[in-house]
Amino acid sequence: EKADPQKTAFLLRKAWTLYSVTPLYGFRRGRLRDYARLLSAFIAAEKQKGLAVEVGVELDIKVALSSLADIRGSEQDQAALLVQLSSRSRGSPRNSEDKPVWWGWFCSVFGDELSESVPEHFTCLPLFLSHGAESYTALVGSWFQKTFDCCFRRLAISPLNLSWMVAMWAGCKLDRAASAVELVFSVPRLAQPLDISYAIHPEDAKALWDTVQKTPGEITQEEVDVFMDCLYAHFHRHFKIHLSAAKLVKISTAIASAHCDGIVKILHSQYLPGVLMLLTELAISQIQ
Amino acid sequence: MDETVAEYIRRTVLKIPRDEIKMMLQKWGFLSEAQLQTLNFHQIKDNISQEVVQLCEENSADIKQAAVLDIIYNHIYQNKRMWSVYQMKKSGEELEYFDITDFKKKFKRRLRSALKNVTITFKEYEDNAIWIRVAWGTPHKKPNQYKPSYVVYHSQTPYVFISSSVLKSTLPLLCQALIVASNYHDIREMELRSHSLNSLKDIVFKRYSQNFQTCTPKPLQAGNVEPENEDIRIVDENRSEKERIHRLNQEVFGSGPQPKLEFAQYRLETMFKSDPKMDVLDKKEPFRCLVKFSSPHLLESLKSLAPAGMADAPLSPLLTCIPHKARNYFKIREKKGLYPQSFVSP
Lengths: 288, 346
Hints:
Chain A is an alpha+beta fold and about 290 residues long. Chain A is built from eight helices and 13 strands.
């Protein structure tokens, strides 16, 4: 099911920090306006306590909660929930536009594995993505944790999962000129740390993946391993360096990029559901 | 004093870390020692720079003097800039006597004949280095002092180090003026770039310890390998392998410190070769890749890969050739014919 490109345009080309979130207890979709008010009051109160976010600037933070009905996988998935913080400096006139300063959204794309196993009154939105100041994330996160008895945890992405992503996304068909398929490795434990960027022409990476993948629409761990081994072997042939012993920290394709610290950027709306499905799966693994 | 000159001096002083301002002004020598004594270096930089400007006003500073201060700053903080290396070619073998006055005259004349509005400043340093600063204007605009080019020329060598202005069109003019002034007939850019100007000099002037094949390999001293564990119950199983790696590393990198480079880039246009059993890509066209290595000290980092178990020893010549080929940008294509396993780098 495709998401409305206009509504989801704001999701693209932003660096999102990923979290897994345990199911929310007592969340009611009809009460979004109330929640916005409560969260707004919470933020104002925390600022009064001296946990000010912006120093030296008088800012009013406005909170808006909305549902993104199109961002879900199956009928069982809850629609995504967007939290947006905007600011308006106190000095400016009443009807001046609010400036968005922070976004956070909860979603579940084919998260049936989790939603099927929770009791009543729990809402499953296991993947949380935030963009904006860390201090706002902490405020919003702690309000949700207190209000719905849930738990947020940063979602790191292992080299194994990064290699899945790069193999999968390198194989995607793209209509226009695509950017390179890039893998970034780090060798930190040397006296002088070394970073290696290995960027492959997207057509050549796709050609390689197409010969590795045996069944279209289906990917196995073995195929991902073969793909990566091919890349490692090509590299070793030239440089005599065992790239497999280095740490894969970031991958980048025309579809999306992902960093092991749990930061992703989605570049192509067509593949948004696919990317979110993979990330939902990672979030659920971390919760269970 | 011209307002623009005042502003330029003010901004240049602001760049300098506070505890180095006095030293740099002394090196500049434009303000007298007495004037320098009147400066309060313990206030905020904004105020210090204002006071400096006032003193310069008293001495009627013009852009020429301000430019010298800028060279001094950039000479000390040379590693903030990215430097490219150029090599000039002479037509004959004649060793000509280098006349610095002649050089400067010809350089200025060549540039000024092409572009009326330029600020050209020279400063000579002890290691035979001539620093040249050029600020570029247009036929209708005065030179932009904030985007100059810097050139470092060692007159006894055919090498020129250039930190280009962001105004790309000025580079050909600069190169032209250099060859005319130095009596060479051609100049080409080498594939060698770094922030560390001294390392670039080390590489092209061959001032680093190179890899010499020793006739009799020295027996390994205790100090050469990782300090052994005092506990004799711990036996180093692959001691001989460690020693072999260490010896190969020495042969290939030499035993002295490596020149400091921050990156090396390889554009690969070689074929993808795989184990036929794997039944994968078997294209007749190159597998196009761009590989970039980065490190605070690249060559030392590469040297430590084999001992760390991350690479085979000896390391690939594509990496070890960086200093003696004097390049860190490569384009690698498959060598056709007799030795399909080897690579050419044009």
